Amino acid sequence: MKALVFQGPGQIAWQDVPDPVVKGADDVVIRVDVVTICGTDLHVIKGDVPEVTPGRVLGHEAVGTVVEAGAGVRTVRPGDRVLISCISACGRCRFCREGHYGQCRGGGGWVLGHTVDGTQAEYVRVPFADLSVHPLPASVDSHDGVLLADIFPTAYEVGVLNGGVRPGDTVVVVGAGPIGLAAIIGAGLYSPGRIIAVDLAESRLAAARSLGADATAGAAEEPGQLVDDLTEGLGADVVIEAVGVPEAFEMCTRMVRPGGRVANIGVHGRPATLHLEDLWSKDITITTGLVDTYSTPMLLGMLAADRLPSSSLITHRFELGQMEEAYDVFSRAADTGALKVVLGGPQHNEIIAPAQP
Ligand SMILES: NC(=O)c1ccc[n+]([C@@H]2O[C@H](COP(=O)([O-])OP(=O)(O)OC[C@H]3O[C@@H](n4cnc5c(N)ncnc54)[C@H](O)[C@@H]3O)[C@@H](O)[C@H]2O)c1
Ligand SMILES: [Zn+2]
Ligand SMILES: [Zn+2]
Prior knowledge:
By secondary structure, this protein is α/β, with parallel strands linked by helices. It has two domains: 2-150 and 292-344, Medium-chain alcohol dehydrogenases, catalytic domain (Quinone Oxidoreductase, Chain A, domain 1, Alpha-Beta Complex); 153-287, Rossmann fold. It is 27% helix and 24% strand. α5 (151-161) packs across α6. The site of nicotinamide-adenine-dinucleotide has 34 residues, from α1, α5, α6, β9 and α9. It comes from Streptomyces atratus.
């Protein structure tokens, strides 16, 4: 089959690799129908995620069709259309039993496109299938559904819920990429007083306004002043970091009010400075987190009920084989206006199991 292979920092290629096969009784092999690219994949390519070694197939988000299931898989069978979650879960370890699937110690967590081969491929093996894929209701389009593999649960759990957004709050979202935009949509569910989006790219600020931001500011144009002006100098109740660079995190800690919350979502490859000389007396709470995806069933229900505008984040569609072009468009988002790029599409119904090695 073909897959997008990481070949070391700065290098990727869509190339031939061996077909995946069921290895454990809990595994499924899935034909990838629709797949997307995450800001985290860009961090991997930059070399920010050193556990990803050359030869790894990237990608941790997809919708596909089960072609083969191990003997122990109970909840899906060949032919089922499923959402592949970015987080896999053994279901047995202490963290899984608490719903903290992202921290799974039994071989799950963020493994796809990280420590095992991922979804940017024609086929993918998914471990612990019963807890790691979600059958999709017929009413959910695959292109809309794929955005629930990562960005919506991440923005909701690690941004909105960790940030404790409440009615009336002033919420600042730093970084208006797909994750930040999904955080704006998620925060909007709690009737905040106002949402302020901050980004370097005007195209992304425009997207933020169209998805519910009440005000926007360029990251280079003193956004803290706008926040002060809108909050009588207090600062924001909740600041969500959705970038993953030290400057953005440090900006968040300057914009939060005393007693407020900073929810970090960004994947960081470099240390950020925590200015305790300013912050020690401000009673602030800082949270970090890898998404757990415990909210995915709820979000799927909202999508099926047409209560989640996920398709508004999709700006570009490609064929699966145009992976390198899609990466190019996604990584130059400030020029291309890309938000979420999706590849693939509904396929013929005939299910062809990959050849055994
Ligand atoms: N914690 C998790 O579980 C989790 C899951 C998925 C993604 N992430 C991370 O979330 C972050 C956002 O993901 P994405 O897909 O939206 O990425 P993205 O790269 O598409 O978006 C990042 C945005 O930040 C903007 N930006 C860059 N520097 C900035 C600065 N100094 N100030 C303000 N804005 C700035 C960019 O213009 C861009 O619009 C990434 O770091 C990604 O790795 C974390
Ligand atoms: Zn991701
Ligand atoms: Zn586990």
